[in-house]
User: Fold tRNA N6-adenosine threonylcarbamoyltransferase from Aquabacterium olei.
Amino acid sequence: RLILGVESSCDETGLALVALPEAGAPVLLAHALHSQIDMHQAYGGVVPELASRDHIRRVVPLARQVLSEAGRRIDEIDVVAFTRGPGLAGALLVGAGMACALGVAIDRPLLGVHHLEGHLLSPFLSADPPEFPFVALLVSGGHTQLMRVDGVGRYTLLGETVDDAAGEAFDKSAKLMGLPYPGGPHLARLAEEGRADAFELPRPMLHSGNHDFSFAGLKTAVRTHLVRQGWLDRPDALADPANHAALADLAASAQTAIVEVLLKKSLGALKATGLKRLVVAGGVGANRQLRSQLDQACGRRGVRVHYPELHLCTDNGAMIALAAAMRLQTGQAVPTREPSFDVKPRWDLAAL
Ligand code: ATP
Ligand code: MG
Ligand code: FE
Assistant:
């Protein structure tokens, strides 16, 4: 069976074709992505109305592109999968609307997919796919969760952030430091030149005794350091080469604080569950310091760590087509003929 995946929950339009063999793992045939980062950069964040309008422009050409790259015809698609939520309502509606229209046009059923389940299952597309059960650290722009995963659709929430997500902590700190949107990768690059012990930053809830996180205090602490230097809201000072080294120190200190919390909490969840496998998913999973520290600490404990391929850490259509394929394969979902625009901007993964 052939599954088309459509992702449009935020600021990337992603389309992909996945083949689901009678037996064996789903195979990614083609995927295509358009990122709106350049468009939103001028505003320092995603502008929802602009995002929706751009998804409309991109979604059909990208669908044509993946069909042609995979050498398939439109009527060979068996199921049209799309991101049903969570995300921006208007952006989700574009993907849902396109998927429904296509489903009606070629007389094929639809399957709404949970965006975070896409992130969570994306490591199954890597060369070294995980096996169930595992602990999942889901670290994206909007979410930070630890989960116990026993199979497709069998997710138990162990803990999550009580305020900002890890990606948000990266992005908000980076924005305060005058770095372009989305700040995570920029802050990570700057951090490589800095000293991680230069600034004292908080590690909130590190010893909270549960699997929850809190990152809002970190952004506030970064802001306090910038105020002290007299650099807050002063683009001239932030761009001054004379201040570059100190900013790199601040970036390194912030990254280290975030990574330390993610690392310790992941180890805590592994210990509590007794599981020997960790899956890291979501955009922050691309962070090199996080990967190397997890690899080291888990290696010492006999825990295997699995990541999505780097280019599949952030939003993409491949993970949506894959999640649909794995749900179909395990009988965890029934595609519907009923075109539905019932997107879910807020949607709890553990409730699936
Ligand atoms: P959600 O999936 O929760 O709805 P999202 O789709 O916006 O949120 P993702 O696309 O998974 O999130 O990830 C984007 C986030 O990942 C951004 O916050 C970005 O800064 C962060 N990110 C990407 N690369 C890196 C990196 N190398 N280091 C740190 N953060 C990174
Ligand atoms: Mg994005
Ligand atoms: Fe995402």
